[in-house]
Design a protein that fits this description.
Layout (H helix, E strand, L loop, with lengths): L2 E3 L13 E3 L5 E4 L31 E2 L2 E18 L12 E6 L10 E2 L6 H6 L3 E18 L2 E2 L5 E7 L4 E3 L4 E5 L5 E4 L5 E3 L9 E3 L4 E4 L2 E9 L5 E12 L4 E3 L4 E3 L16 E3 L9 E2 L10 E10 L5 E10 L13 E2 L4 E3 L14 E2 L3 E7 L9 E11 L4 E10 L9 E4 L4 E3 L12 E4 L9 E3 L10 E9 L4 E10 L19 H28 L9 E6 L2 E6 L2
Parallel strand pairs: 12-18, 20-24, 26-30, 32-36
Antiparallel strand pairs: 1-8, 2-10, 3-5, 4-9, 5-8, 5-10, 6-7, 6-8, 11-14, 13-16, 15-17, 17-18, 19-21, 22-23, 23-24, 25-27, 28-29, 29-30, 31-33, 34-35, 35-36, 37-38
């Protein structure tokens, strides 16, 4: 609609808080003046519609009466509000057009018209009449021109320019976590939302724009929108390309200083840890103890760390172990010597770790180690400190390191089962068997067992042990069995393992019966020897003696 009806005769200024009134008390002119009703009455701030109150302008009866206000400088006009007479004659505004521009000569046709020409119905029914210039019009003069013959009366003309900035709502801050070697990353977002008190169809532009390449750092993005009046609104947000990868450090190997009585006065040195990073260069490490430091007797963990350009911290550590030295003085002190460093595999880490007690020379009382032998250690390196007291009650200490490697998955199940023992005839020394059986839940489909000697080999008389292996990426397993000829003089050795199982009950009974029969035969033989001892000679001229289980044969002359 061209006009907005406001029910009260007094405009509520709060409705125009976002607009600036630019016409009040400015210079005005009109075509003619009737009585005491000059052109300035239309910008004096009074909105009373009673002509008798001397707040309204009035021209004489003429063709095409006009009125204008000089704003002083060119303005961008958004709204114009005209207050009509209330006592009578409201229809006199019919046929009036309002224009804005830089031309002050009637009929002002070079100026742009704001809204539609006021009709008779609008003039009678609406007071005040609000006219929206959409799009806004730039100009110095606001003119009111009547296209027909008659009077022109204006009780107040208020000219407004829009001063409110568009409201621009940016996206939330964007954070992108990366761990690769790329230095630039493309980021896009939805356009900011733009709203305005007067203008529509506004859009925002951002710098940098969506889909730009952003470096690994914090980047501020500013978005702005400008309305037709020239008011500019903006917002901003942050794009953070976050590098999550820590620098990689490689520390020196553990250092053990030899048993030197002057060692405690010598500095311990090492090469700087090597530092690499996915994005940053020239990164150096700092250690809790600098190379060239002097270390006390015992084990000291040295931790080195490095920080990259985005604040990620990587670290590594190693142990400097100074072996305890013998101090020679008038009162000889005891020397406490700890076990060497202990390293266990991850699959053994749930078992208690034990060690021999430290050795103590001279007189003294051995105390305890912390943690004690039989302790279950966590993964990583732990310093074990042992102590003793000498005859004077002074405490001496030594230490060593228990290192538990990373545990292998406890859910892994891997096994190998060898064939049973094999007996062959000497006339057929080539022996063939089936491959050992493998069981696993790690997907080792490419793992094949190998045996030494292999299946199909030629075996010698006697018993030969065959060992079979299976090599997995995480562990190696093995089993064995015997291959023997029928002429060997001794039975197979017992080699039952957890992977092979144990002998069944029938086999055990047969073995026990064999032992009993053998012992009975030996006892009968000894009895015969004892009875023959009573004879001086036997029929062959040979004298036999049996003493304490020993049989002696003597040839008689």
């Amino acid at each position: 609609m061209a006009f907005l009806h406001i029910s009260t005769s007094k405009i509520i200024q709060s409705c125009y808080n976002t607009f600036e009134l630019v016409s009040e008390f400015k210079t005005t002119r009109q075509s003619t003046t009737h009585g005491n009703a000059p052109a300035s009455y239309a910008v004096d701030g009074g909105i009373n519609g009673q002509y008798s109150k001397r707040t309204c302008t009035h021209t004489t009866l003429m063709n095409n009466p006009w009125w204008y206000v000089d704003l002083g400088t060119e303005k961008v006009i958004s709204k114009i509000v005209i207050f009509n007479r209330e006592d009578c004659c409201a229809e006199r505004l019919a046929g009036t057009e309002v224009r804005v521009g830089n031309n002050k000569a009637p009929p002002f046709s070079d100026n742009a018209q704001c809204a539609l020409t006021i009709s008779r119905m609008d003039a009678i029914a609406i007071n005040p009449i609000e006219m929206s210039c959409n799009p806004p019009i730039s100009g110095r003069y606001v003119t009111v021109y009547k296209q027909i013959r008659g009077y022109l009366t204006l009780c107040e003309v208020k000219v407004y320019t829009d001063i409110e900035k568009p409201e621009v709502v940016c996206p939330d801050d964007i954070e992108l976590h990366v761990g690769n070697n790329h230095r630039l990353h493309q980021v896009d977002w939805n356009p900011p939302a733009v709203s305005d008190n007067f203008h529509t169809d506004l859009s925002a532009t951002c710098s940098p724009s969506s889909d730009s390449l952003f470096p690994v750092e914090f980047t501020k993005v500013t978005c702005s929108a400008t309305d037709a009046t020239g008011n500019k609104g903006n917002c901003s947000f942050v794009v953070n390309i976050a590098d999550d990868r820590k620098p990689d450090l490689v520390c020196p190997e553990h250092i053990t200083v030899g048993n030197n009585t002057d060692q405690y006065e010598d500095p311990v040195t090492w090469s700087d840890p090597a530092v690499t990073d996915n994005l940053h260069t020239n990164i150096s490490a700092t250690c809790t103890h600098a190379s060239g430091s002097i270390f006390d007797v015992g084990s000291t963990i040295v931790t080195c760390s490095a920080t990259d350009g985005t604040g990620n911290v990587g670290s590594c550590s190693f142990v400097v172990h100074v072996i305890g030295q013998t101090f020679i003085s008038n009162d000889v002190r005891p020397v406490l010597t700890c076990p060497g460093h202990i390293t266990v595999n991850g699959d053994q880490s749930r078992d208690p770790i034990t060690w021999s007690n430290p050795t103590l020379t001279y007189k003294g009382t051995l105390s305890t180690c912390t943690p004690p032998s039989g302790y279950v250690f966590d993964e990583g390196s732990t310093i074990v400190t042992c102590s003793a007291r000498d005859s004077n009650g002074e405490v001496i200490r030594c230490s060593f390191v228990v290192h538990v490697e990373e545990r292998i998955n406890s859910d892994l199940a891997i096994g190998i089962v060898c064939p049973s023992d094999i007996t062959f005839n000497t006339d057929q020394p080539v022996v063939v068997w089936n491959d050992p059986e493998l069981t696993d839940n790690v997907g080792g489909t490419d793992v094949q067992p190998t045996c030494n000697p292999p299946s199909g080999a030629t075996f010698e008389v006697g018993s030969t042990r065959v060992t079979c292996f299976a090599f997995y990426p995480i562990v190696n397993i093995s089993c064995w069995f015997n291959v023997g000829s029928t002429e060997r003089s001794t039975p197979f050795a017992n080699h039952a393992q957890s992977a092979r199982g144990s002998m069944d009950t029938h086999s055990l009974l047969l073995a026990g019966l064999t032992v009993i029969i053998t012992l009975g035969l030996i006892a009968s033989l000894i009895g015969l020897i004892v009875r023959y001892r009573k004879k001086k000679k036997n029929k062959f001229g040979i004298n036999m003696k049996a003493d304490e289980g020993t049989v002696t044969w003597e040839l008689m002359e």
